[in-house]
């Protein structure tokens, strides 16, 4: 019994610094939020970049993580889920300057037509937006040339972000299934 109590004390003591660090960030966000003048017009910004979706081969960035019991026989691949961590670049060439990463979940979500459920973050690495994120969610009908997703939030520079993402398939390799997607973001934030 004494060992259990000492173990709990040790764990609490060991992780108390982590709890303190976690609490510091919300305080600064709280200060920011309390000083926010909601009557001030939000800032607006348009960003454009490309995601390198590498499904197979060297440098793979998209991995299947689950299948439903009907995925193998479904004409729409219903229930297949992928986790992505795609590189973002200023241009379609993977060697163009890097902007950040697209990280999240992609799943085949429609029993009747080819459509995806998308939930991911654009994670900015470097430059003015370093460490900031933009959160995106939506449905993507694969047959559509131009697709629209919702910006539902953000962190860092993009706190309280809202907006629209328009994206297209810039290129698709039918042998490897690798793609390059072009993203245009119309963002409002405070």
From TrEMBL:
Record's GO cellular component terms = apoplast
Pfam families from the xrefs? Dirigent
A biological process (GO) of this protein is: phenylpropanoid biosynthetic process
- Chief location bin: secreted
Q: Which UniProt keywords apply?
A: Apoplast, Secreted, Signal
Where does the protein end up?
A: Secreted, Extracellular space, Apoplast
Instruction: Enumerate the InterPro entries for this protein.
Output: Allene_oxi_cyc_Dirigent (IPR044859), Dirigent (IPR004265)
Q: How does it assemble?
A: Homodimer.
Query: Which family does this protein fall into?
Result: Belongs to the plant dirigent protein family.
State the PANTHER family in the record.
NUCLEOPORIN-RELATED
Give the protein name, as stated in the record: Dirigent protein
Organism the protein comes from: Dorcoceras hygrometricum
């Amino acid at each position: 019994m004494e060992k259990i109590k000492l173990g709990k004390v040790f764990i609490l003591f060991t992780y108390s610094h982590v709890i303190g660090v976690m609490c510091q960030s919300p305080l600064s966000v709280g200060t920011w939020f309390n000083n926010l003048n909601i009557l001030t017009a939000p800032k607006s910004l348009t960003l454009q970049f490309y995601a390198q979706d590498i499904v197979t081969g060297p440098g793979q960035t998209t991995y299947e993580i689950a299948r439903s019991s009907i995925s193998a026989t479904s004409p729409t691949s219903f229930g297949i889920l992928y986790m992505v961590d795609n590189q973002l670049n200023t241009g379609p060439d993977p060697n163009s300057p890097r902007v950040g990463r697209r990280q999240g979940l992609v799943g085949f979500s429609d029993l009747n037509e080819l459509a995806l459920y998308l939930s991911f973050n654009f994670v900015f690495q470097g430059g003015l937006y370093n460490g900031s994120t933009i959160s995106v969610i939506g449905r993507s009908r694969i047959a559509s040339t131009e697709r629209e997703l919702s910006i539902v939030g953000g962190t860092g520079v993009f706190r309280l972000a809202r907006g629209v993402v328009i994206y297209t398939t810039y290129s698709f390799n039918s042998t490897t299934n690798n793609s390059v997607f072009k993203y245009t973001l119309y963002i409002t934030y405070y």
